[in-house]
């Protein structure tokens, strides 16, 4: 969308959109070597709805699944409850405990989606201050994108990527409990 302003001769972009070029092999190597930036880009890739990104993400997930076939699976734990009950606070405390016991923790926090941007609305990461800065933790808020079941449509792919990146414990925090937050049960231990 372009916005035309009366005193400007050329149109200004209404919003800036970054387009990434993804090299799947390079991204895969970065993920399995534990680079956070590569993990973040990989999760962004699997969350994308662009047709070319869907093809690339399937290739990346296939590589990670094959890589993980000879390695131990991470412990997967799901957290659900009514909004405001303290899920994020509990995850922060329990996560800190696990890190002190030398575990590597990935937190996949599924938030409601913004109706304007489609991104995460609440940002549970702000309530996990210790985990957000710990070298042994990775916190990734992701929008649910209107997906029923309390998780996003790409949560399982994010779990696979986090395991490939070397995290031995993965927390999945759902949007909140109601009548439809059951999908997380199929993704965790």
Automatic annotation (TrEMBL):
<comment type="similarity">
    <text>Belongs to the SIMIBI class G3E GTPase family. ArgK/MeaB subfamily.</text>
</comment>
<dbReference type="Pfam" id="PF03308">
    <property type="entry name" value="MeaB"/>
</dbReference>
<dbReference type="GO" id="GO:0005525">
    <property type="term" value="F:GTP binding"/>
</dbReference>
<protein>
    <recommendedName>
        <fullName>AAA+ ATPase domain-containing protein</fullName>
    </recommendedName>
</protein>
<dbReference type="InterPro" id="IPR027417">
    <property type="entry name" value="P-loop_NTPase"/>
</dbReference>
<dbReference type="GO" id="GO:0003924">
    <property type="term" value="F:GTPase activity"/>
</dbReference>
<dbReference type="InterPro" id="IPR005129">
    <property type="entry name" value="GTPase_ArgK"/>
</dbReference>
<dbReference type="GO" id="GO:0005737">
    <property type="term" value="C:cytoplasm"/>
</dbReference>
